[in-house]
Structure formats: C-alpha cells, structure tokens
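User: Show me an example of a complex going from sequences to structure tokens.

Assistant: Sure. Here are the input components:
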Amino acid sequence: MRARTRTARKVVVLATIASLGTGLLAGCADDGKDSSGSSSEGGGKGKTKITLGLFGTAGFEESGLYKEYEKLHPDIDIQQTVVERNENYYPALVNHLTTNSGLQDIQMVEVGNIAEIVETQATKLLDLSKYGKESDYLDWKWKQATTKDGQTIGVGTDIGPMAICYRTDLFKAAGLPTDREEVGKLWAGSWDKFVDVGKQYQAKAKGTTFLDSPGGLLQAILSSETERFYDSAGEVIYKTNPAVKAAFDLTSQAAEDGLIGNQTQFQPAWDTTIANSKFAAMSCPPWMLGYIKGKSKPEAAGKWDVAQSPVSGNWGGSFLTVPKSGKNTEEAAKLAAWLTAPEQQAKLFGVQGSFPSTPAAYDSTEVTTAKNDMTGAAPIGTIFAEAAKNIPVQTIGPKDQIIQQGLTDNGVVLVTQGKSPEEAWKNAVKTIDNNLEK
Amino acid sequence: MSPRHDTAAPPEKEGGAAPADRIPSSTPAEADVRRRARLSRRWQRDMRWSPYAFVSPFFLLFLAFGLFPLIYTGWASLHAVELTAPTDMDWVGLRNYTRIFDDDFFWNAAKNTLTIGIISTVPQLMMAMGLAHILNYKLRGSTFYRVAMLAPYATSIAAASLVFVLLFGRDYGMINWALNAVGFDNIDWQNDKWPSQIAVSSIIIWRWTGYNALIYLAAMQAIPQDLYESAALDGASRWKQFLHVTLPSLRPTILFTVVVSTIGASQVFGEPLLFDANKGASGGAQHQFQTLGLYLYEQGWVNQHLGRASAIAWTMFLILIVIGIVNYVISRRLRASS
C-alpha cells in the first residue's frame, strides 16, 4: 500500500518535472516556429501566410495594398507586425538575422542601416534582382541595396526628397515673400543663403524662431552632400571631411545667432512647438508633412507651404528585404516586388505621403494631384518630384546612423544650450569615436 | 491514505521491518524478504535522490539562464565581437578590460552611478523610515495607506518615467511651471548635470520608498510592545523611544535594505534610458546621467560591440562583489559591536 502511494507520488513528481522541462522546451520550440513565421497553415484554408516586419508608419495596410494583393492572389494571407521606432526595431532585426531565427518573411530596413545590412548580412538575404525590375527604381536607390558582387538584397519602398516647409503667415508677418517660387529663389543654391534668410526673419520675428531644431538643419545640409561620413573606399572620414565640419559650423552659427529653437526632433516638447507654431520653417521630406499634420492644431491647416530646398537632398526611405530562412521566400519576394512597384508606390504616396522611389510613378495622377491639408492647394507631388530629380548620389556607410546621431545629440544640440561650437564639436567627436571603436 | 511517510524515520538498512535472521527459513518468507529488501532499496534511493529532483528545476534554470550566460559573457569579453556577427570572435585577451582604465565614458558612468545611487538611496531610506514610523501608529484605514504605498512599486518603470519626463520638461513641464509661479527661472532638468541626476533619482525614490517603508513597518511591528511601555514609564518621549528602542531593533532590517538598495542603485538602467530627451542611450548630450547599466547597453546594443559590452558587464559584476564584501564586513562589525 505504502509502496503504491510512493510510486504514485513519484509519478506525479516526475510528471511535474517532465512537464516543466517540456514546457521550457516547448517554449523554445514555439518561439522558433513563430519566428520562422512562414508556416503555411495560416488562414486555416491552406493559404500561404506571408508575414512582414515593419517599423514606423509604412502604410501598406492603411492604403489597402494587402487587401488588393490578397484579391489578386487568393491563396496568400498577409500579416504584419509593426514596431514604432527604428531604434527598437533595428537591433532586434540584426539579432534575428545573425541567429537566423525570429525573422518575418519580409523585413523592412531603413536607409540609415542599409549599408550595414548589405555589408554584413547579405548572405542571409535573398537576391531580389530577379523579382524587382531594376529600371523601375531610381538608380542610386537600387545601388544602395546592392552588394559588391552584384546581389540586390532589398527593393526600395520610398525616398525622402527634401524640400523646405514654411509657415506663410509667419513669413508674411516677418516681411518675407510667401509665394513658394519666390521663397525658393531667396535661398536657391546654398545653405548660407538659407541661413541669411533666417537672419532676416529673426530680425522681425516675435516669439518664434526661424527653424525648429539644430538637428533638423544639420540633417538637411548633410543629406545634400554626396560624400559625408565615409569616402567611396569605405573609410570613415567624418572628422576630416570639410563638408561635415562646414555643416556643423553653419548649424552652430545659426544656433548661436538665435535662429534655431533648442528642441530635439520627434520629442514631445518638439511636438508642442509645432502645435504652438513656435517656428517658421523646417527641412521637410514628404513624410514630414504627415507628421506636421498629426501634431498641429486644426487652425494651422492651410498655413504651411512647400518651397524647394537650397540644395536637394534625401532624408529617409526604406527597403524591403527577404530573409533566406523563410519558408515561402519565393512568394515573399514576389510580394515585396509588387509592394514596391511604381503603381503601388504611387498609391502609397496618395494615402501615406511616402514618396515613390520609382520615377515612373511621378507622372501618375496619384502623385501629380496629391494635396495635404496642411499645405492647402500646394501641388506637393510635383514639388517633391522636382526635388527627387536633383538628389545627389550619396556615399553611405555602415555606421552613418551612429555618426549622424552623435553629431546631433552630442553635438549641435549643445550649442543651443549655451556651449561653444568648439566644445560641442569636441564632445561629438569624442562620443562618436568611442562608439565606432570596436 | 497512509500517514505522511516522508516525515517518518527511514527503515533500518538491512531488510527494513523484517528481522535479518529469519531470511533463510522458508521460501514464501524469502520472497517476502526480497520484496521488502527491494522496496527498502527503492526507499533509500528515493530518500537520497528525490530532494535533488525537487530542487533541480531552479538549478537547471540557473544553469541555462544564469551560469551559462555569465561564463559566455566572460568568454566574449576576451574577444572582439560585433553584434552583426556574434560567431565571429577574434581573441584579444584582456584588451577589453585594460581599455576600461582609460575609457573616460566608463568612469563618467561609474561616477554617475555612484552619485545617482547616493542621492536616490539615502533620502529614500530615510523617508521610508519616517513613513513606516507614522504608519506604525494606530491609524484609521491603515491598510489603505499600506496598499497605496506599494502602488508606485507596482507601476512599470516605463510608464512612470514617461510621466516624469513630462513633469520635468524644460519648456512645458509642470515642475518648471510651478517654479515659475513662485518666481524661479526655468531649470533645464534634462541637460544640466545635477538637475538631471536629481530628476532621475526622484523617479527611483518615488518608486522604491513605499516598498522599503513596508519592510521597515513589518520589522517595527515585530518589536515587543513592552519595550515601549517600559521606556514610556521611564519618561522617554516618542522621539526618544524611536531613537533608543525602534532604531536599534531595526538594525538588521536597515542593513538588509541598504544592501538591496545598493545593488539596485548600481544597476539603475530603465529610468535614465527613458529620461533621455534624445531617446538614445548616451544618458544626455554630455552623458551627464549615463549610468553603468546604460553605458553597457549603449556599447552592446546601440553600437553593437558585444566584446566591449561583455567586459563592462564583468567589471560591473566584480564591482558588485566588492560592494557585497564591504557590506558583509560592515554588518559583521556592527553585529559584533552590538
């Protein structure tokens, strides 16, 4: 009798331990399965499930592209997961790529990270040159995702041709012209002229600044340079590149002269300065209009306008990549190519403001007739298309983002806090060098 | 159901309940004896190995998620490894450690960790003591207050920090608004060194004071009432009672909270990360509130230098061990003196 109870207990104990153990293992196994994510049991009706890992407001779902594709391909079921900020999305993506697990069928990569992905992760990603049509895309956009041995591991979703968004009411109050052609002519050709216009503005401005943040100006100037942090041989040259130092100095000068508000972009306090109309102009890729719209009070509608940037540049834009570890790489690659084809990119611009990386889309009605509540009747599609044609082919490097962030967050921002430009530069360089050192 | 046999004494080694000399007498008895011997052996095995089985889940988990990462981190700290290719390890010996000696950012972070630790732990424990003392009186609705004190502890760091970021905002924050109202200038809580450290500490204080107060309260309630009565008979005031009865009785508890808070303070991470206006991991534009935990995260996950990050992690680990030893020595001295 006793023996039996003991055995019974032992069985229970063993069962408990075993279930704990298998629970753990199952946990891992589940993870692996979810992560490879491309199981074909999705949808329940034998549909092929394609998953997308995105960040920010990619807008594919919002503009109805998934539904359209599912209608065209009834056997496909599309699902996405979206991470709000690329700072959180990208380290996880790198982690998943290096361990070859936890990946979605399609993964989005930001332009600031594409060089690093091309350089270090290309073997894990599918060559998409057979799926996307190279001639559809802007030449430089296509090349950014192409490895030295000619594999194209990402297709471009959008680009960020920069213009300058400005408040017509504030410009008028400061005695500046408000017509977008005239405004563009004021500073056409150089950033120094742009800062000069700022000085004119500031002389008569009451309680507002010409620009929002030092980071915004530095970003704008740097993104119009062909060579900034890396040279074409792949060496880090940000410290010695005169263009970088000039951009830093010009931004610092403008900050010291009080033309720039002391904000950090994309922070709550910065949002409040948009809502309270505390500045008159900002460098402005198309997606920024959506941001302005989101943060403005209703009465700001129609008070903004868009002028050409002093020098054209590119700020932002992403790529879709297909990890080889997925189960339906073929289907995923087809979907990625379709989502980034000219027709779909045009639709995306109409709804989401992501500007196409495919020139063929620039003449589509979605682009030419596009309007934004903030900018009233301004033909933003043609303005940004014009800017897109003049974007320089920029050399991008694997650690661009770290360098850019250091120059902004540990650099020019200090000038608005009362530090000298020399101190700010020293602080930025020290931080960046420490961060680059392996 | 039989009575609890696990608490009963184990049977004798030979043959259990069956006396050994009767074994060879008859065949049925022999079978019986063999059966009993078998059961007995099983019983002994049970007694010897079951406890190990019972404690094994913890140790298996510890091996998998504690010891292995610890050792692997140590191994990685001797290499140059990047997050982009974690299997690609280049042996560099102790370079990651020797480099720490002239890494200004590391020492800056260490200094910040120390100062933030002091300005958060000291007021926190003193306030907790005061709160516990007040709650130790007979109060109406004391359960409510005790639960309310735990509420900050139950709040997620992320949620709390985001609210504090808004409160401490330079241009539109409520604290500066209140300061303005009484005639002070705006304080740049995020960018000036001491204000930012005070602000980060205030999040920590807010979060942990109630937790420590409850620990103190529990210890206070274990102090025998007669001590207070006899002190009162001797004419001791409330304050004297607190000084001469409560505090000495709480000494072990105070030591415990000091040790726990010190360890907590040396690992501060979430608060400064979320307090940063730039949403980076540099702890402010001039690293003015970058703690060791944050620096480790910045090197490992933002800059992708796993080898360096591992070395920082191990250095932190060693520092913690030193702190632990110091605490141990102090507490032994205190115990000896009392």
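The lines above are the inputs; the final block is the predicted structure for all two components together. DSSP finds twelve helices and two strands in chain B.
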